[in-house]
Amino acid sequence: RISLTDRCNLRCVYCMPAEGIDFRPPEELLRDDELLLLVRIAAECGVTKVRLTGGEPTVRPAIVDLVREISKIPGVRDLAMTTNGILLEYLAEDLARAGLRRVNVSVDTLDPEKFRRITRGGRLERVLAGIERAEAAGLRPIKLNAVVVRGFNEEEVVALARLTLDRPWEVRFIEVMPFGTVADVADAGIVTSEESMGRIEAALGPLEPLDLSGEDPARTYRLRDAAGTLGFISPVSQPFCSKCGRLRLTADGRLRLCLLRDDEVDLLTPIRAGASYAELKEIFAAGAYKRPFG
Ligand code: SAM
Ligand code: SF4
């Protein structure tokens, strides 16, 4: 997972404070050439799946060119993006042509007013248009991510789940994680996956479990006769750390194995100090194989 920027065009209540965010100056972030060098090294070390995220990846300058260059790197077989979808309406076709395979779009509610509240100002219709455009551009399968937050959208899980009756999408519900700056949102009381499943079953009928055991942290189900599936991601009530094989590269060039751990390996400093390719690869590999939980 590569964070392309720390910036975003939304301010979701569970992710960023309303104001006073200390964004990094651009010169402290990886440039395109530096980022491509690290992806090449990662691919040589065995990484085959790359997911672009952020912040909001679509606000990174020249995102389409960057996607094209990443998709050309030998060994990168699956190139995906997690996005809030606000700019997808304009970018989906170019991204697909540049080599992006698929997108996960974050949308926490289908109610425009609630969407505005949870994202502090976002316009739902742009996201919905973006999802349609992404599907038309062949960015499939479409996955939608909804973080469930008490007092904001816990009832919305039903309308979101209903989408899968007609559309071949995977709608995934995520328990909110209490990150430092936005911990108050989680203090309102976590909505567990079990609670959301109960709400969905009460309204739409039984959830049939699907055995899709793999690296995906989502537990997957289907409503009867549905075209799509439902996933439940439970980092709080059922942590999936032992299954997690992710490497995270931050926008400022640090390699992190886990969002919830502070240790990280700085790759930007050696790049800018002129480290050779072989030296960088050694630093990368030493950090990458330091798995968090043994
Ligand atoms: N801006 C893009 C987006 O919203 O999809 C990509 C970055 S966002 C940080 C990646 C994912 O993390 C989104 O699905 C978002 O909903 C989720 N997320 C953000 N804050 C979270 C939190 N406190 N707990 C659980 N998931 C969170
Ligand atoms: Fe932006 Fe994504 Fe965070 Fe929302 S979850 S504020 S869209 S980075």
Describe this structure in words.
The chain has 294 residues and is of the alpha/beta class. Helices cover 33% and strands 17% of the residues. The chain has ten helices and twelve strands. It has helices spanning 32-44, 63-71, 88-98, 112-119, 124-136, 157-166, 183-187, 193-204, 268-272, 277-288, and strands at residues 2-3, 49-53, 78-83, 102-106, 143-148, 170-175, 207-209, 219-223, 229-233, 248-249, 254-256, 264-266. The chain has a nine-stranded mixed sheet, with helices on one face. A three-stranded antiparallel sheet has the order 10-11-12. The radius of gyration is 19 Å and the shape is globular. Residues 8, 10-12, 15-16, 54-56, 84, 106 line the site of iron/sulfur cluster.
Order of strands in the sheet with most strands: 1-2-3-4-5-6-9-8-7
Low-confidence runs of at least 5 consecutive residues: none
Distance between the termini: 21 Å
Number of helix segments?
10
Write down the overall geometry.
globular
Sheet with most strands: 9 strands, mixed
* SSE sequence, one letter per element: EHEHEHEHHEHEHHEEEEEEHH
Find the structural class using helix and strand composition. alpha/beta
The percent of residues in helical segments reads 25-40%
What ligands does this structure carry? S-adenosylmethionine, iron/sulfur cluster
Q: Which percent range describes the beta-strand content?
A: 15-25%
Topology, please?
Layout: E1 2-3, H1 32-44, E2 49-53, H2 63-71, E3 78-83, H3 88-98, E4 102-106, H4 112-119, H5 124-136, E5 143-148, H6 157-166, E6 170-175, H7 183-187, H8 193-204, E7 207-209, E8 219-223, E9 229-233, E10 248-249, E11 254-256, E12 264-266, H9 268-272, H10 277-288
Parallel strand pairs: 1-2, 2-3, 3-4, 4-5, 5-6, 6-9
Antiparallel strand pairs: 7-8, 8-9, 10-11, 11-12
Helix pairs in contact: 1-10, 2-3, 3-5, 6-8
The structure holds S-adenosylmethionine and iron/sulfur cluster.
Iron/sulfur cluster binds next to loops.
